[in-house]
Amino acid sequence: MYSGIVTAVIYAIYGHWVWGGGWLATLPYGVGVRDFAGSGVVHAVGGMVALAGIYLLGPRIGKFNKDGVPNAIPGHDVPMIVMGTFFLFFGWFGFNPASTLAATDLRISVIAVNTFLAGAAGATLVCYYTFFKTKKVDIALTCNGALAGLVGITASCAYVPTWAAVVIGVVSGFIVMYGIKFNDWVLKVDDPVGAVAVHGYNGLWGLLTVGIFADGTYGGVSGLIVGNTSQIIAQIIDMVVVVVWAFGTGYILFYIIKKIVGLRVSPEEELTGLDLGEHGYSAYPEFVIAGPMDGLREGQISDNLECSTEGART
Fold first, then answer.
1. Which of 83, 89, 178, 231 is the most buried (most CB within 10 A)?
2. How many H-runs (helices) and E-runs (strands) does the chain carry?
């Protein structure tokens, strides 16, 4: 239900404002809003809609203690996380360079290099940051660092020099790490894979980078590094608009769905696993499936249910 409406309405209308000659593209600041491959149109929209969705859905059972302290619920297959990140990283070379819409546009080479540098910088920053902090490399968070760098460069990949791509990727790495903490500790929302931090917060950062790092060598887009102070005004306006539009319409959409058909499965099905509930068998039959009460201390389920949101209570 939501994917059809997001695609047909939420993405489409905002996309027209930026890419279809709409009011954002024609703002009287700089050359109007510029978002080359979609840090805002694709990623910030998705991240803000997701934020609205997880807010209304509520956290998974056991994510937060009664005192609000978040608990880590690790992913089940780290090699799959790495493989998925590699596939996404590889796909980004079609996503960003192909946004020239013509391989004869030689700027495609600069875009490809900037894309690679930002993604690599984001991954490297998170890799070494976690290592120096904990003496261990957090591989899942490092993967998110790569994706964060890729999201951060998506709006400005055609407009910035290569050194700026590295800076953008490094900042993106910090944003994803502290964005995840912000969601857990401040907003108290449960984002299992860090999608809001990767796509939402870094999508906004990507829009801002156009106004900061664009050097005027492509499309007439120039930012603060060459003394143009007007382009960043257009980009900031765009950041505000995408947050209000995507989060607002996303909230309305998920609220209606929640009232009509609901957003959550039952607590029992959540604890047992959705594979059994949705498909009738386990996706991991080689493991013993424990019942909801197995291995849990007495009263833990009821404690967790009290800590969860209204939608998860029996």
1. 231
2. 13, 0
